[in-house]
Amino acid sequence: MIEITDQSIDIQKIIDAAQSPDCGGVSVFIGTVRNFSRGKDILRLEYSAYPAMAIKMIQRIIDEAAEKWDVRKFGVSHRTGVLGIGEVAVVIAVATAHRKEAFQACQYIIDRLKEIVPIWKKEVAVDGETWIDDHA
Amino acid sequence: MKITVKFFALGKDLIGQDELEMELSESGVVADLIAQLEEKFPPFKELGSYLIAVNLEYAEHTDALKDGDEVAIIPPVSGG
């Protein structure tokens, strides 16, 4: 399953989407809002997305991953809206038959998500707001 | 032909709206639409680097447009 949501991400739901009896491992990445960035104290992040295209691009990334590894099931959720420090911005769960592939596929998916999926974050720091224009 | 143009992040801030309709002459390409945007909305030039999507797919400036297409201006993405 893939979702772009303005509600708190239900982490268990995303993990459940990646459960499969033929899989021995589910690798999960949880991206959270950090309190510092580029030397600034961050108050909150504001995420916006182009949801229809974001879902399409995430599906493409999953397809890419499935060509490289034996991805059986997956769940990807990305938040939009205002997120405070420590809140969950993204959850990726990937199930494969063996653990090594699960780790590799999960890392690939988050790296590619940061490269091509039309989602943006604005950092709101103590001294002002900035649209982030790199995918560090 | 009518084209829907969508803006996000800094692009939306610069244009001051998230969507607008633009009229483009027949056989227009993405670059023609961009030229029109820059003329109508001078602040758009401040956007610097961005990609273009047509109907939810990344596109090139030379790609042809057709009536009813949805074009999105995609500033550098920063999800995750």
Topology, please?
The complex is a heterodimer of chains A (136) and B (80).
Chain A: E1 2-5, H1 11-17, E2 25-32, E3 36-37, E4 40-49, H2 51-68, E5 71-79, E6 81-84, E7 88-96, H3 99-116, E8 119-125, E9 128-131
Parallel strand pairs in A: 1-5
Antiparallel strand pairs in A: 2-7, 3-4, 4-6, 4-8, 5-7, 8-9
Helix pairs in contact in A: 2-3
Chain B: E1 2-7, H1 9-15, E2 19-23, H2 30-40, E3 51-54, E4 57-59, E5 70-74
Parallel strand pairs in B: 1-5
Antiparallel strand pairs in B: 1-2, 3-4, 3-5
| CATH 2nd-level architecture of chain A | Alpha-Beta Complex
- Give the % helix of chain B: 10-25%
CATH superfamily label of chain A: Molybdopterin biosynthesis MoaE subunit
End-to-end Cα distance of chain A, whole Å, is 26 Å
Number of DSSP helical runs of chain A? 3
**Largest β-sheet summary of chain A:** 5 strands, antiparallel
What is the number of domains of chain A? 1
Rg of chain A is: 15 Å
Q: Total number of β-strand segments of chain B?
A: 5
- N-end to C-end Cα span of chain B: 37 Å
Low-confidence stretches of chain A: none
Roughly how much helix do the residues of chain A carry, as a percent range? 25-40%
The average pLDDT value of chain A, as a whole number, equals 96
Short description:
The complex is a heterodimer of chains A (136) and B (80). Helix content of chain A is 32%, strand content 42%.
Core attributes:
heterodimer; A: 136 residues; alpha+beta; Aldehyde Oxidoreductase, domain 3; 3 helices; 9 strands; 42% strand; B: 80 residues; Ubiquitin-like (UB roll); five-stranded mixed β-sheet; 2 helices; globular
